[in-house]
Amino acid sequence: MASSSDPTLERLANSVLQPGFEGRTAPDWLRRRIGEGLGSVVLFSRNIDTPEQVARLTASLRAENPDLIVAIDEEAGDVTRLEAWTGSSRPGNLALGAVDDIDLTERVAHDIGRDLHAAGVSLNFAPSADVNSNPLNPVIGVRSFGSRTDIVSRHTAAWIRGLQEAGVAACAKHFPGHGDTIVDSHHGLPQIQATAEEIALTALPPFIAAMEAGVRAVMTAHLLAPAYDPELPATLSHRILVELLRGELNFDGLLVTDGIEMGAVTDRYGIDGATVKAVAGGVDAVCVGGESADEATFDLLSTALVKAVLDGSLPEARLAEASARVGRFAAWSGERSRAVARAAEPSDIGLVAARRAVRVRHRSGTANGALPLAGAPHVVELAPTMNLAVDGRTPWGVAEPLRDLRPGTTSVRLTEAELAHGDDLLDREALAPATGRALVVVVRDAARHRWMADTLNRLLRSRPDALVVEMGIPAPTTLGAAHLITHGATRVSGIAVAEVLAGAAV
């Protein structure tokens, strides 16, 4: 048995952690830990300014270890880190699923991979292989390729092929599937009510398709699936991770947790307890740093792993197995990255895809008369509070790109909290400025937010001729004189729908 000061045991513990950190340069503590066996780091939007700055940052980290895994959560679409300050130049999964052109999906993913590869990223925590079978899902939604298993499966595979051909390793998430949930795992523990047979038919096929496409990493979901394990969340469950994923599905790659600081696991086990249980249950790498990105947290988790080996709650052989998998993945992903020449050619494939994803519905009897806009409209954007996977500072909407095409366009963005103070605000800021002009109402998952749906209905009672733009999951009902659906709220989605509104679509 190793002692608490055994450097070999400490290096094993360090090697299975994937910490985030603060700042746009590498802090001293992180450099030291890389020298002490740390095998991975994770980048967030707080670490990113420009592509050139990220490339310098990753190069400085790899000066300590050339095969260091540098990971990021770059789904594009609504979840972007590289373009958190500008909005993504590529649409997300739902838009690609709506177009349903696997060649287009592969090209978009390759374009994302090109940027990540140039920035020195070797592992991308994407794509989401979740089937969004529950339209009220608060955390997946437009991050999924859709609600049909076949569509999600083929586009998951295409996305992985495109990304990995660009020299960046993909990671299919969130196993065994986070689509049929109504709880955000950042804050609570979701539960899947489906039987094992139903899960096998609906949620698992995209992960099987991912493996067949060559994925070498899978991210776990912080959710309870009683059909497999009535006690432990998937991230901590030997039954789900080892017996199901490794045994029945024959996956031998890297298993990484979703952010271990998330409430679904820490509320019950603490961040240190969840880390130990995850590795004991079969996880190889523990992602931490979305909200806990400091040296003290890293040391807490490393020490917890060492103590667990010493007290017998974590077999040393399991920790060594996890560390070995991290090492094999690091060598493979590093070799893959070095084998691809860096390319910096700009591409407009993201805007091409966003344009193809826009759908227009017309209310019966209006034909195409509502479009294009005759003059400069007033735009009302109803803004929800986003889940923590989406950076709340990322720009989105229609008003800005429409203003470029229709000078004189005015706009207001309203939140639930602001509208709770009474109807005067809606009359004053939304309806009055639209008198004698076209009114465009922009929503984001209106069917999932009661306040947003109620506000939209009130606006349409006053202005049935309004045009409605849905930038989230579309409802089946056609609303307004024209109902435009973007399947996501990215920058290019805003541009694409603004072109349709202004009659400038190409």
Account of the protein in words:
With 506 residues, this protein is of the alpha/beta class. It has two domains: 19-339, TIM Barrel, CATH 3.20.20.300; 358-502, Rossmann fold. It is built from 18 helices and 14 strands. The protein has helices spanning 7-15, 28-35, 51-62, 93-99, 102-118, 149-165, 196-202, 205-212, 238-248, 263-281, 295-311, 316-339, 349-357, 399-405, 416-419, 424-431, 450-462, 491-502, and strands spanning 17-19, 40-43, 69-72, 123-124, 172-175, 217-220, 254-256, 286-288, 359-362, 378-383, 410-415, 439-443, 467-470, 482-485. The strands form four sheets. The chain has a six-stranded mixed sheet. Strands 2-3-4 form a three-stranded parallel sheet. Helix 6 runs parallel beside helix 8 (205-212), helix 13 crosses helix 18 (491-502) and helix 14 crosses helix 18. The chain is globular. The mean pLDDT is 93.
Task: Please give the structural blueprint.
Layout: H1 7-15, E1 17-19, H2 28-35, E2 40-43, H3 51-62, E3 69-72, H4 93-99, H5 102-118, E4 123-124, H6 149-165, E5 172-175, H7 196-202, H8 205-212, E6 217-220, H9 238-248, E7 254-256, H10 263-281, E8 286-288, H11 295-311, H12 316-339, H13 349-357, E9 359-362, E10 378-383, H14 399-405, E11 410-415, H15 416-419, H16 424-431, E12 439-443, H17 450-462, E13 467-470, E14 482-485, H18 491-502
Parallel strand pairs: 1-8, 2-3, 3-4, 5-6, 6-7, 10-11, 10-12, 12-13, 13-14
Antiparallel strand pairs: 9-14
Helix pairs in contact: 1-11, 1-12, 4-13, 5-6, 6-8, 10-11, 13-18, 14-18
